[in-house]
Amino acid sequence: MGGKAEEFQELRPLLFSLAYRILGSVSEAEDAVQETWLRFEASPTAARSAKAFLSATVTRISIDVLRSARARREAYVGPWLPEPLLADPYEDPERAAELADSLSMAAMVLLERLSPLERAVFVLREVFDFGFPEVSTAVGRSEAACRQLVVRARRHMAEGRPRFEADRREREALASRFFDALHEGDVDALQELLAADVALVGDGGGKAPQLARAVGGARNVARLMASVFPRMVAVGVVSEPREVNGQPGAIFRDREGKVLYALALDVMEGRVQTIRAVINPEKLAHVGPVADAWAIDREVRGVRRAGE
């Protein structure tokens, strides 16, 4: 028992990282990892390779969960974004670039275009560099079929995949300037940091105040954000700079420190290309106690009326 538990704990970061990329959900990934442990513990025979057994098991569980989640996501209210991940527990220096790129909100949204099988095969092969024999075993398809799945998945991902700013310090500096301008309500300073075709996307899932649709264009986005955020500051909302899915971002909290939403920035060519806000309280519970977004919205509207 001790040996199994130790093997599992050692591989747990990898298993979670695999499951999260397949599912786009922290809570579902954690459940998949826990179910994997139960199956590993209950297995009467010792696996020749704990990594192979556990990776295959968590992949199959994640595929099943994703298939059942597809109908819910198709009926989702407004844009769907993944649950924000503040830190990836798995590290591999040799795969650092692939791991970071695959974690971004942009990449996770693109992964949603893939079938569950394509998504799993792409994550195993392209992100974690599993060999085709291991991929084949994990998804229960022939190696030839897995190669075809990878080709299709690569094509879908390449169609819309962004290239992020390579220099982390430049990204962080730009993000710092962005949040300073945001809190000051400086429209011109914000607009200067935004790409001409920037998009602002919010995911409330019908469970929190959200934009009716994505807002596009540097001037439109700058005006909207510069008008709303100072009012939020006025009612006690504070921002905590954090990496969100490996990209510059912030967690916004109410005056009691409860989580209001997570915001992630896609930075490319020295400009913010996309701003994504996860506001759905069901997607924030793993970050901490969740704020009442509707109450905050009422307070913000009251500040606006008082200023008119």
UniProtKB/TrEMBL annotation:
Residue intervals of the RNA polymerase sigma-70 region domain: 8-70
Gene3D superfamilies cross-referenced by the UniProt entry: 1.10.1740.10, 3.10.450.50, Winged helix-like DNA-binding domain superfamily/Winged helix DNA-binding domain
Positions of the RNA polymerase sigma factor 70 region 4 type domain: 106-157
The UniProt record lists the keyword Lipid biosynthesis: no
InterPro entries: ECF_Sigma-70_Domain (IPR052704), NTF2-like_dom_sf (IPR032710), RNA_pol_sigma-70_ECF (IPR014303), RNA_pol_sigma70_r2 (IPR007627), RNA_pol_sigma70_r4_t2 (IPR013249), RNA_pol_sigma_r2 (IPR013325), RNA_pol_sigma_r3/r4-like (IPR013324), WH-like_DNA-bd_sf (IPR036388)
Record-level GO BP terms: DNA-templated transcription initiation
Subunit structure: Interacts transiently with the RNA polymerase catalytic core formed by RpoA, RpoB, RpoC and RpoZ (2 alpha, 1 beta, 1 beta' and 1 omega subunit) to form the RNA polymerase holoenzyme that can initiate transcription.
Name of the protein described by the UniProt record: RNA polymerase sigma-70 factor (ECF subfamily)
Lineage: Bacteria, Bacillati, Actinomycetota, Actinomycetes, Streptosporangiales
